Amino acid sequence: MKKIISNILNLDLVIAGIALIILIIITFFGSIMRYFFNNPIIWQEEVQLGLAIWVIFYGASAAFRYSSHIAIDMIVDLFPERIQKIIEIFIAIITISTLVFILKNGCSLVQQFINTNRTTNILHIPSQYIYSAIPIGCLLMIINYILVEIKEIFGIELIEFKKEEVDGD
User: Fold this and answer.
1) How far apart are CA 75 and CA 18, in angstroms?
2) β-pair partners for 119
3) What is the dihedral of CA 95, 98, 100, 101, to 10 degrees?
4) pTM passes above 0.70
5) CA distance readout (Å), 21 to 17, 84, 155
6) What contacts 7, CB < 8 A, 6 or more positions away?
7) Do 142 and 99 touch, CB atoms closer than 8 A?
8) Better-predicted residue by pLDDT, 69 or 49
9) What is the rounded (10 degree) CA torsion for 168, 56, 61, 139?
10) Per-residue pLDDT reduced to its tens digit, 78-129
C-alpha cells in the first residue's frame, strides 16, 4: 500500500518533468522559427504559459517531498532542539495555511473558468485544464509537506520516498 501511494505521489515529478521538456523544446523550436525563418509560432506563448504553470506547481510539490526548497535555518540552529521543533511546527502551520489559501482560491478560479467556458485565445484550450494545476499542485504540496514534517519533527516515516541522486554521487 505504501508503494502504491508513493508511486501516486511521484506522478507530480513525472508531470513536471514532461512539461519542462516540452516547454524547452517548444521554446527552442520557436526561437529557431522566429529568428532564422522569420516565421514565429503564433500559439507558442499560450502553450508556454500553461506548461510553466504545470512545471511550477507540480515541481514545487516534488520539491516539498524531497525537502528541496530553500531554507535559511542558521538562526533556528542556534536554539535548543526542543525550541527548534516548536519553530518547525510554527513554520509548518504557516506554510500549510498559505497552501490551503492558495488551494481554495485556485479551486474558485477553476470553477470560474468552468462556469464561463473560458478558453485560450488561439488554440481554444479550456482554461480549467491549464489552471487545474494550481489546486492539484497545492493539495499535493500539503500532503508531501505534512509527510516530511511528521518525519522531521516526530521521526515517523509514513511513506518512504527515495531521494534521487542528481549528481551521481
Assistant:
1) 38
2) 126
3) 180
4) yes
5) 6, 39, 36
6) none
7) yes
8) 49
9) -170
10) 889 889 889 888 989 999 999 999 999 999 999 999 999 999 999 999 999 9
